[in-house]
Amino acid sequence: xxxxxxxxxxxxxxxxxxxxxxxxxxxxxxxxxxxxxxxxxxxxxxxxxxxxxxxxxxxxxxxxxxxxxxxxxxxxxxxxxxxxxxxxxxxxxxxxxxxxxxxxxxxxxxxxxxxxxxxxxxxxxxxxxxxxxxxxxxxxxxxxxxxxxxxxxxxxxxxxxxxxxxxxxxxxxxxxxxxxxxxxxxxxxxxxxxxxxxxxxxxxxxxxxxxxxxxxxxxxxxxxxxxxxxxxxxxxxxxxxxxxxxxxxxxxxxxxxxxxxxxxxxxxxxxxxxxxxxxxxxxxxxxxxxxxxxxxxxxxxxxxxxxxxxxxxxxxxxxxxxxxxxxxxxxxxxxxxxxxxxxxxxxxxxxxxxxx
Amino acid sequence: xxxxxxxxxxxxxxxxxxxxxxxxxxxxxxxxxxxxxxxxxxxxxxxxxxxxxxxxxxxxxxxxxxxxxxxxxxxxxxxxxxxxxxxxxxxxxxxxxxxxxxxxxxxxxxxxxxxxxxxxxxxxxxxxxxxxxxxxxxxxxxxxxxxxxxxxxxxxxxxxxxxxxxxxxxxxxxxxxxxxxxxxxxxxxxxxxxxxxxxxxxxxxxxxxxxxxxxxxxxxxxxxxxxxxxxxxxxxxxxxxxxxxxxxxxxxxxxxxxxxxxxxxxxxxxxxxxxxxxxxxxxxxxxxxxxxxxxxxxxxxxxxxxxxxxxxxxxxxxxxxxxxxxxxxxxxxxxxxxxxxxxxxxxxxxxxxxxx
Lengths: 356, 356
Known about the structure:
Two copies of one chain form a homodimer. By secondary structure, the first copy, chain A, is of the alpha/beta class. Chain A has two domains: 2-82 and 147-199 and 292-348, FAD/NAD(P)-binding domain (3-Layer(bba) Sandwich); 89-142 and 202-288, D-Amino Acid Oxidase, subunit A, domain 2 (D-Amino Acid Oxidase, Chain A, domain 2). Helices cover 31% and strands 22% of the residues of chain A. Chain A is built from nine helices and 16 strands. Chain A has helices at 8-19, 35-38, 54-78, 96-111, 121-127, 149-162, 191-195, 258-271, 321-334; strands at 2-4, 25-27, 42-43, 89-93, 117-119, 137-141, 145-146, 166-168, 183-185, 200-210, 222-227, 230-236, 241-245, 279-290, 297-300, 307-311. In chain A, the strands form three sheets. In chain A, strands 5-6-4-11-12-13-10-14 form an eight-stranded mixed β-sheet, sandwiched between helices. A six-stranded mixed β-sheet of chain A has the order 8-2-1-9-16-15. The longest helix of chain A has 25 residues, at 54-78. The radius of gyration of chain A is 20 Å and the shape is globular. The two termini of chain A are 28 Å apart. The mean pLDDT of chain A is 96.
């Protein structure tokens, strides 16, 4: 079989399939250079549970539940630590308006029975003294974890190679170039041109900061917040890095703009003032593969025998990596789609209008 | 003779001396990598005329007057355009407070007889429609020009080589390593360790933006302003680049920080809103070689026969390049210091306390 795309999803599909005895080739001229390179790596089924997205939320919850085992097995198989951390996530509102807006969402998430608990400002700052004194309130989502996507890709690559996967450093311009009975298209935004699926790029700008003095950051939780209406997240890594993200722009370029960086830095510093002293190490933009309903496209392509899609993961590619890999592998090995895939079939959109 | 340091000042001294028939070697393991690489290139004798710095102001005015001829001769000698532009400078205040603070300085500059003329907001925006409508007022300094320091260094290097200057890619750890009867120390902040002179680093962070679509920026004047108390300048280049500077920090590291970038971007966007759409191409920090009285150190070192200093130019290295090169060359060729150098002799500070 062939996998087009060596991001997190493509590599995990390749690894899982090779574990089941399949001969797998992965095609990518720039492995790991797409959305996986930019992603922050939040595993947030709760904080990413939005109004009206019940089926997507269920998939996020299912995949997040697989993450501890997936991370442990991957670290064992590759010898590379993917940076999985379980300190949980604080969600906060800077102003009364921010808190009111965020509170509506938290109530919805609580109503779904998801693990999220409101905290008073004093309780928030007990957990993270680095939070600005201005922060009006928040909540804790203890099950919303994180992983380092760049380490994840490196670990998946080693694990896949050890399982026998062959890497072909070629750009695939058409699926006919893939010499395999079964082809999985995990090409992110590139899937649109390869398959005609309604995948469109949604640009995200992301910063990487580094704590001064070579130490770890001054906070351990993932912090997601609204700061004067601006959504922002801060993901601390053990090595001192803090990922600050992300803009959401309906654009297809990958330019880092003055306005994007300004919005991210302003919101980040308002929530955690000590970040002013951090080094700005990197500013980069990537393209999320988005679909009309924000949910991924996983399963067989209609009218294209032997071609499967595993793309369109939008903001959720990293958290959905384990479940996507498992379900695609089962589909290939057994020929039968798991019922869990029913809401995510690639043929669920009308042909017209085109979205990309 | 030997010149230690291949920044703008060192290269210009070497070029001028070689033109007078001297055999010149320039020592630098990383030519053009110091303050010249970071500098914005404003040639601002008027806007940089601060209270109580009459003698420095006179030197700035003298050097700025030499710039047109210097730039033309350099372009001719090197075949490299150093990017000298004469559209002039607008100085502006965003808020009433900013305007009040800036207005005191402009009145002082007018009182010295320098060419600076207040403009009403409508007249400001007639000249530069890109200015924010919030800008409360400003002035024009038509004689404050600009040059591109990176092009300047490239041009000086070619001109110096064509004049016979030899480049030695070596780091000079002590002046005894320089095999010459006369040595000019133009090593920026490195001069402190080489000579014991009171030169200290003053960190500056600078951004480079690029106009969208490959065109030139949406404004032609250099714009200097105060935005909610934050001083900032914007230098537009013909090729589409806009230099945004600069922080002033009493620190010796060259880290780009989240807080520094945030302050620059916020002030820049407040003065010229269209900059939000510009690409952020580069963020870099450099170290200005500053002295206790903000004026340069030019002339013979006391007790060190054959050693001259040409350093300590602080914020004014690029504008002072022509006059520094001319006066140092005259001093070496004739043995007599020009009276204009009297305020800038390296021995004007007491030995104690040490400043570096």
